[in-house]
């Protein structure tokens, strides 16, 4: 990091190596030391949250990043921005070989790890039909959505594992 991004002044003490599940805890506003069973709780946080995702077609310029930073510093409320780089590695796999289909990106698609409820959501009672879910599900999973619905129907036919934008069983 010091070689590639010296302007961050990052030192080893600022970083911590955690397992994947510990990172899930941290991004869910839990301590990475908490037991993973807290993720099974169906209650939600009472923090106001808005999450949006986007794919960029071209790298953001240094000037563009500076503009984003300046805008964030002017905001009154706490804000968090996460940049995720795939580094072209996903291009080595076909869209249909894994559930995540995004390669050359389209502005009409969404990043599957972040729920964008503006695109649509399952019914609050947990019963959502295929037609309803496909409106937003195809934005996340493109042509893989139908295959994932079939898998969900076999693996979780009672829809126990669900959230606002989970894939519904048939």
Automatic annotation (TrEMBL):
<feature type="domain" description="Berberine/berberine-like">
    <location>
        <begin position="110"/>
        <end position="168"/>
    </location>
</feature>
<keyword id="KW-0285">Flavoprotein</keyword>
<dbReference type="GO" id="GO:0016491">
    <property type="term" value="F:oxidoreductase activity"/>
</dbReference>
<keyword id="KW-0274">FAD</keyword>
<dbReference type="Pfam" id="PF08031">
    <property type="entry name" value="BBE"/>
</dbReference>
<dbReference type="GO" id="GO:0050660">
    <property type="term" value="F:flavin adenine dinucleotide binding"/>
</dbReference>
<dbReference type="InterPro" id="IPR016169">
    <property type="entry name" value="FAD-bd_PCMH_sub2"/>
</dbReference>
<dbReference type="InterPro" id="IPR012951">
    <property type="entry name" value="BBE"/>
</dbReference>
<protein>
    <submittedName>
        <fullName>BBE domain-containing protein</fullName>
    </submittedName>
</protein>
């Amino acid at each position: 990091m010091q070689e590639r991004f010296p302007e961050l002044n990052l030192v080893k003490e600022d970083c911590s190596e955690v397992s994947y599940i510990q990172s899930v805890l941290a991004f869910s506003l839990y301590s990475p030391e908490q037991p993973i069973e807290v993720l099974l709780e169906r209650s939600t946080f009472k923090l106001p949250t808005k999450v949006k995702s986007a794919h960029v077609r071209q790298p953001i310029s240094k000037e563009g990043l500076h503009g984003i930073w300046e805008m964030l510093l002017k905001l009154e409320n706490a804000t968090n921005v996460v940049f995720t780089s795939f580094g072209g590695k996903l291009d080595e796999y076909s869209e249909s070989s894994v559930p995540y289909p995004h390669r050359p990106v389209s502005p009409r698609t969404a990043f599957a790890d972040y729920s964008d409820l503006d695109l649509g959501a399952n019914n609050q009672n947990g019963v959502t039909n295929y037609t309803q879910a496909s409106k937003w599900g195809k934005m996340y999973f493109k042509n893989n959505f139908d295959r994932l619905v079939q898998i969900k129907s076999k693996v979780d036919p009672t829809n126990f594992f669900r959230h606002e934008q989970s894939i519904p069983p048939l």
